[in-house]
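Whether sequence alone determines local backbone shape is best considered at the level of individual chains. For completeness, the protein is quoted in full, as a sequence line and a line of structure tokens:
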Amino acid sequence: MNFFIKQQGQGKPLILLHGWGFNGEIWNTIAAELSQQWTVYQVDLPGHGRSPMSEYRLPTLVEQLATDLPQKAVWIGWSLGGLLALAMARWQPASVRALVLVASSPRFVTAADWPHAMPPSVLEHFAQQLQHDTMGTLHRFLALQVKGSQAARQQLRTLQALLKQTGVPQSEALQAGLTLLQNTDLRSELLQIRSPALLCLGGHDTLVPAAMGKDCQQWWPALHKVCIKPAAHIPFLSHPELFMPILQDFLSQ
């Protein structure tokens, strides 16, 4: 077993992958609701939560996830977790029955033909700060995740409490995650993905701008896209009353 995995519920398998700086516990409320119909697996990525640190290359992570988790599962990935779920659908298609990407992207930094993303300098700055101030860097990243949301202060307090409760990831894992976000570009792989896929974006997200959805569909026309207009980067936490019906409708199909 390469990862710590929390399992609950009964039914077909559904896997939840968290984003940078957190662990599987961020899905607790969603997982409890989904577990009424699904067997839910909340994964702690390497160096996060209760998972030991291991190699952080994308092919290795995909191979390890395929080994530790059931086949023909629904994969739901938030932010960095969505990047991993995309890679799973591309390189381990037998593992992925359907794919849900939440505030995620096949490429997290801008390019000449990819304007709706973070400037590379943002992640470079975080990587530099991380070397001498892990907690300060994490708290600044939390503030970016809620920026623009209608209840940003309340959401920031929720995230800060969650981080305190679940523990800070290993700094090596945080650096490795930033490197993945900086250097991964899966756009050319999108047309090879055969599983049904939903992309859920936040209208006020500054990390993965909602306009990215249209860019993504140009590379991947079969992708189903929705936007939760009042949400920022964590729509399942900030607006569960809007997010869950969208998710349940997709899963019911």
